[in-house]
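Hi F.,

I've been meaning to write this up properly since the lab meeting, where we talked about keeping a consistent format for the predictions we share between groups. The idea is simple: the sequence comes first, exactly as it goes in, then the structure tokens exactly as they come out, then a line or two of notes. No screenshots and no reformatting. I'm using this chain as the first example so we have something concrete to point to.
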Amino acid sequence: MLLRFFNSAYLSRFLFALVIAVVIWFPSFVVPVKPVMPQWQAPLYSLYLAIPVKFVWFDTLTAFLLTLATGLVINALAVNFGLSGKTSYVSFFLYLLFASSLHRFTRMLPVIFINFLLALFLFNLFGTAQAGNNRIKSFNGGLLVGLMTLFYPPMIILLVVRFLGLVSHRINDLRSFLSVLLGVVTPFLYLFAYAFWTDGLQEVADNCLHISNAGFSVVMPSDIISISVLVLILILFVSALFTGYKNLYRRKILKRRNVSIIIYLSVFLAVIYLFLSDDLQFFALLFVPAAVAVNDYLRFVKRKKLSETAIFVLLVLVLFDHYLYLYNAY
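Output, unedited:
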């Protein structure tokens, strides 16, 4: 019922998704939590934390608006590149549901900034084949990787995904590959110039590419509700990826390449979460490709009622998690 309701582009669908998001985020506004400076070097996140704020809920509001913006970018991506119906808010709704799945995700975290940039990065990857000038598109993709790296160093691994995007779209121009590298380097030129000016070059050089706790580890919450929410999302996501891979040969060439890119991106994001991070927030990196992949999967799955039931159960569990947190906070 929910998915069919959002499978049209009426303003009422967007507003209803917005109302659901507000209801989910309401406990975080009632009991706002100030952002914590991460252990790794995150220059752009530190810059955000340096903003003087008088209102305690400013960080929560910023996180909420960024989550909405990310959902809109993902929805536009799915519609424009044929991975959703031409008039649909399903991807928007799915991303809001996934990104708000746990109460600990509904506060200002580096991953919220990263996911917004990641959605733009995926848009950049999909648009490569239609670009009039691939070198500009490649530079922009590299620039987004560089910016994400300044929020979390292991995101530099997505440089490989950008190269794979060029290979998938049969672009063999050496200057396009060099443009990606130039885009990645550009944010660091500004960072090192600022560090040199403020006499902090040594500290930045030592920490900007530091990868903490490299090694396999599965960071999961301890309570059964949170675990159930994440496992349910993971089941939907893995089912979507498996079905997308299995049906690649049935798609047109451009859609086949874009679905392949989603699979590549998902694998590399899983590597970052499993091997290069020690914080649960980076599970949320998977929500960007998940919203697109699950939407595409739900369009073709035969057991519609089972999918609708899974999404409804997920929504109920998410609401329960958030309002249990509000109850415990008091």
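Notes:
DSSP finds 14 helices and no strands in the chain.
The chain has one domain: 2-129+213-329.

If this format works for you, I'll send the rest the same way.

G.
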